[in-house]
Structure formats: structure tokens, C-alpha cells
Amino acid sequence: MRAAFKTRAALAAASAALLMLTACATRLDLPSKDAGLRLRVQSSVIAPGNGGELIAADALEAGDILLTSIATVNSFGIRLGTFSPVSHAVLYLGDGQIAEAVGPGVRARPLAEVVDEEQMVVAFRVPGVDAAGAARLREWAMSQVGTRYNTVGVLLNAPFVLNRRLCELPLMPEAVSSYCMSGMAMVQLGASRNDQFFCSQFVLEAYRQTGLPITRADPRWVSPADLLHMREGDVPSIAATQPLRYVGHLKYNPPPLLAADGP
Length: 263
Hints:
- With 263 residues, the chain is of the alpha+beta class.
- The chain is 37% helix and 19% strand.
- This is Distant relative of cell wall-associated hydrolase.
């Protein structure tokens, strides 16, 4: 009997671990005159021919957010840890230039280099960014060139991304999930810096500093995968002030380990 109990306990623990790892944000849409009750599940799939399209660089506007992935060990690890097809976030400045936070620090460089190096580059747009807002984004981003990379923030964010999946169990009410994630972030990310940046933190901070916040959450909480899920039609893990609009793929030659439909 004791052996049977241990076996059941082990199976229960394994099932709980599997549920935590496969958990992803869900949203229950209440019935309307056009549709019945509907459960929506977070999706990582977006590709040309599957709700996406290939575009040229001239379709971009200053302030667009580029999410990318490449066949490197670091990219593989980030995509595996976040159950996502993207591993890096970049801010488009206009005139063929981007700004990004990478290992050596914040830098600006030509968009063409990004498209050439990365295997997948997908663009999203923050609604309502006018010429004045784009100018403020460029000015702030360029003022940060040379700022150090937030290595501690990245190291702390990795376990946070995994642990917070407890807050995203299927059908968990949005208010409960938000409270759970906020509490976990305060405990796990409290020691990270907000005067240094990793990639998605830099993009979100640019928008926050210029009076156009994408989310009310601390930028240190947000990964490139979270930005992907803030797009229209998806279910975000971290709430956005308004959904991002998909612009298109500048390049689509995805490296291995693209997530399936759902994280």
C-alpha cells in the first residue's frame, strides 16, 4: 500500500509539474449577440501564410517594434525558456536605423544588418504614435547609446518566466493572475537594475520615458515573448494598455524550436 501511495504521489507531482510547464494565459470571452461563450488560449504561431505576410523595410514606421530570432545557443535558450519563437526585441528609429540593448550595451545600427543577421524578423506597431512621439522615442533611445546591459535583470528574469507560469494556470481569473504575477515579480526581480537595460526592457522603457507606455507593468518583468503576446487577437500574459498591431515579417526563415500553437 505504501508503494502504491508513493507511486500515486509521484504521478501527482509529475502531473502538477507538467501542468505548470504547459500553462499559458487564457481568456474567457462571455457570450454576445454574435458569438457564444469562447475560451481563448495564448498562441505563439504567426507566420506568412498563417495570418502573416512578408513586407519590405519601407513598410515600417518610426517606433515599430521588431521581434527576432536567430540560430544561436543564447537565442535557443531564451526561446526554450519562454516557449516562444522570438528571443530579441529591437526599436525601429526610422530612416533605416534601429536601437537595441545587447551584451556590449545599448547601440544604434542599420536595420539592414539586423535583417541580414537574424533568421526571423517580425514587426509590430504601437497604435497612435505620431511624428512628435516618434521623435521623442528616437531622442531618448539615442541618448541611451552606451548604457550598460542589464545582465542581472536577464539572469533574474529567466527563473521568473518559469515560476510565473503558476500564475497562468488555465481559467485562472485575470485579477488573480495579475496579483500573483505582481507579487512574484516584486520578490524575484527586486534586485535588478532599472538604469541598465536588456532588449525588451529597453523598448518598453523608451515608450514609458516618452509618455507612451505600452503596459503599466515594470519593463523589467517583460520578455520578447510577452511583447509578442501583446498583439491583437492574442492573450497577453502581461496586460498591454492597447494591443500591438501586426505589421508583417521582414524575414521568415525560422531557426529550430519554433513553439507550436500555444506555449
